[in-house]
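Model it.
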Amino acid sequence: MQIASRRDFLRTTLRSATALGAAGSLAKLAEMSAHAAVSGNYQALVCIFLGGGNNGHNTVVPIATAQQNYSVYQTGRGSLAIPMNTLLPIGVGNDVYGLHPSMPEIQNLYNTKRAAILANVGMLVVPLNRDAYNQPGASVPALLFSHSDQTGQWQTAIPTGLGSSGWGGRIADQVQALNNGGQFPTITSISGCGPFCTGQSSLPATAPASGPVQLTGVLGSPARSQGVQQLLAFDNGLQLVQAGNGIVSRGSAEANTLVSLLPTVTIKTPFPAGNPLGSQLLMAAKLIALSGQLSLNRQIFFCQLGGFDTHSAELPAQQTLLQQLSQAVGAFYAATQELQVDRQVVTFTTSEFGRTLSPNGNAGTDHAWGNHHFIIGTAVKGGSMYGTFPSLTLGSENDTNKRGTLIPATAVDQYGATLAQWFGIAPGSNMLQVFPNLGNFSQANLGFLG
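Modeled.
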């Protein structure tokens, strides 16, 4: 391997981070049983980010409810309405809703009380209605409808500016004592995690769905390996370089751990072939299976499925994406059953925003605000809808602009805090360190977890 400069070396090593470090720890790990039981105190959160802004209007559809029926949806949705006879029915009390026809696995999980829906959730500063929204100086998130800004806000739970850490990372900070002696970080990015994964005191590991990639040319040469170790350990007094060395060393040690242990894991549950989210969730299942060897009682995973920015040709694009979501989630839940941790693992969806109810001129929709999300797991109080499903009458009290741009009825803070409390974060000051905006909302626990 030829490296033109130290900068090139750091870039190359950060990409493949596998070759060095932690030999003693790996020797101890290798002595452990490849099938050590998951701790009875174990819990995991699995975040699936639907990048681009999934259109919740075609994901969860009212068919016959006390407030509205399918015709209201159909009028607002126009040419993008899903035919009622193709929707997958689910019950919410005496009301009937329909899931997108590409989601039979999630329909089954919902109907067997293993999945719940949180309706019309989004980033808020304070509770808001249409009148307050239209007032000058209204307290609204900064730069609404911007992909990058709303992605950052969803992941940091900081609605009025930039946050240096994410709420996944801050949850990881709070549970470090439960992972005392752990051989791997609490939080793992499997697909391009943004600020969500970074805490104030804890850093994430990276575990690509394809598995760790070894640094070509180093492992085959003891002299090169020793030279790289010496280079990383050399203290030249430059803080930036030392920080870079630390990142490379941590990444190398973590990747070595995975290279050593992943071959010992067998997941028999079939995952959908050619499904990018399925591959990511299979890696999460393998790391859950290794939690005993890694001495981890708490784990957080970040996965991502992109392509939901459907300004045109929305119907075929969303059909494919929601099918991938449903099949991957169904397989992952079955894998948690295989590992006997289905009550200890909660999977949940997020997305930077929803989309307009009414179509644009390109058979697509535009950026909006509130959205519907799924929570999956045996610990979920499933077969129910939480939050408040909005009126789909254009120009209603939920609509900012007469196009079906929903004002969220539930805040991201409330969504995340419910997950965090189940995960072991106590209400009060500890929770406010994770969600500093939570005090602006009257209900901190939405009740969808037992």
